[in-house]
Structure formats: C-alpha cells, structure tokens
Amino acid sequence: MGTSVPKIDKDLLEKWCGEDVDRLEAMSIIVAVTETGSFSAASRLLKIPVATVSRKVSDLETRLKAELLQRNSRQMVLTDAGRAYIEACKRIIEQVDEAEREVSGEYKVPKGDLAVTSPWGLGHMHLLPLTIEFLQKYPEISLRLVMTDRVVSTTDEGIDVAIRIGVLPDSSMIATRIGSIRVVVCASPGYLQARGVPTSLADLVNHDCITVDGLVTPTSWKFASGSRAIVTPIHSRLCVNTSEAAIQAATAGAGLARVMSYKMEAARRSGDLRIVLDEFEEEPLPVNVVYAPRKIMPLKLRTFLNWISPRLKARLTPGAERERTPKIPENSNVHS
After folding, report:
1. Torsion over CA of 59, 63, 68 and 73, rounded to 10 degrees?
2. Closest by alpha carbon to 156, among 60, 304, 292, 333?
3. Can you give the pTM of this predicted structure?
4. Each residue of 230-287: pLDDT tens digit?
5. What are the strands, taking DSSP E only, across 106-148?
6. Which class is 10-104 in CATH?
7. Alpha-carbon distance 301 to 309, whole Å?
8. 112-181+285-316, what's its fold?
9. Which sign, positive or negative, has the C-alpha torsion 101, 45, 76, 24?
C-alpha cells in the first residue's frame, strides 16, 4: 500500500533552510522539556548536557522575543505563548519525522532502532531468547534491551516498549495484557516427604522457609482467602536476595520457597518442585506490554509488538489452552 506524506509548510521550510538550521533542533529540545517536565529529564532523553538544553531554550526565547516557560525552583509552567508554540513545534516535527521515515523506507520494511525494558528475571528467562529470534528474523532492526527490576521511565530513557508485572497506574500509555503470574509456595518432593505437606497456613510455622529479601529477613508471608488478605507468620531458615537462589535452595531440599510461578515452572515440569497451599494464593499479577500512543506507529514497532506478544503469552501460560493475543491493527493510527 502506498504512503502519503503530509505537505510541509513551504514558508516554514524556507525559514529553516535559509535562516537557521539549528531551529528544528531547538524545537525538539523545548518539546522534550515540556513533555518530560524538566531540563534534566530532557537532557537524559536527548543524551545531551543539561547546560545545552538550558542554553538552547534561552536562545530560542531570545530569538522569538517571548517567554515560553515560567520557571522557578519547584516547577515549570508554559506561558500562553509557549503553549501555542509547542503545539506548532509538535506538528512541524511530526511532519519532518514522517518525511524522513518515508524516504528511508521505514514504512515499507521493518528497520531502525528499538528500546525495550522488562523485569530482570522475566527478561533473562523469556524476553532475551525471544529477542534473539526476533533479530534473526528482522535483520534491519537493532534492539536495546534493558533488563532491570527498577521501573524504567519510558519517556526519560527513550524506551519504546515496556513489559510490566503488576497492577498498572493510570496513565495515557497503551497496555495489552499478555498473561498473569501466580505467586506460589513450592518445595522439593524430598523435602515434602520428609517434613510433610502443609495443608493449612498454620502449618507453616513448623516448616523451614526460604525467604527472599535484600535487607531484612521476612517473618511473614501474605496469602488470601476469598477477598480477605491473610498475613501468616513463618520461620525463615534461609534468607537469600534473589528468587533464583531461593528456587535453587528449594530444589535442593532446603525448605519451602515463595516465588513467582514463571521462575519455578521449569522445575515444576521436571518434577523437581511441587506447588503447595495453592488455595491460599493471592490474585495473580497481570503482565502487560506497555507503549506510548502514537498517531502513526512505525512499522518496526508494530512488527515487534505483533511478534513478541503471542510468544511471551505462550511462555507465561502453562498448559495447552492459551487465549489469542490480538494483533496491532493496520488502521488509522497505525501506519502500514
């Protein structure tokens, strides 16, 4: 299907070329400042010094003979002139970006750079191998994968797609649910044979528990009965700082561990670990693919979303019955 590019205003184009080639850069910088909320956040996003951001904005205001931002030690607020100017800048930048993508062929063949973030465990176990397969299939796409348990700001750090575990805060981001993750109690068959299978939460005080915490040894675990939350005291015999270590210790027979289900799924399938007390589990944690809304979605992004979502969902869903993950459609807000 052919692609039409919005016509760029000729007067504006003549001014860029004839007067100051830095003008478009200054527009991009002040848009980044207003969208991220600070000079420092904009500098991180654009990967330029904070001093450069501040100077470019000041130079722009001097050239325009107008104050665009009212700033003090606590906040920045757009002036009326600033609001009108920012909206015009966004339209111009969008037109230029669109023209560049069309010329470079980005809408015809998936190509370009993508940045993706996910929790460390999920990324290492599932997203990384899938990413390698994706890159083999799409050789003109390069990908930066940020695997960390820190919640990465997609705006500040230039992230295109985030995989999030847990309930999402309200935002303008688009979220596609690809599965859920249980938090389970598990132990090796050998440990359960020697110490008995716990059938009630009260049994936990008579068992060796393997806990996960980086600073303080936990003394209780949270469960649920219907809509009621239950905090149950436990005896932590071994405390480690990663769930991977807890799973390894549980597999070796050191006690009961409480971990995310996807991390122990391989051990469960192999028979090295068994899940217990599943009737007292809390509600599963949702897993979502999250990305910012765009008027025009680059083909590289749509291709990645449609490729990765069903494969991640398959890995996160035990058993054969899996819901179909909807594809990102080729409609008015997605450029094909």
Report:
1. 30
2. 292
3. 0.63
4. 999 999 999 999 999 999 999 999 999 999 998 998 999 999 999 999 999 999 999 9
5. 112-118, 141-147
6. mainly alpha
7. 12
8. D-Maltodextrin-Binding Protein; domain 2 (3.40.190)
9. negative
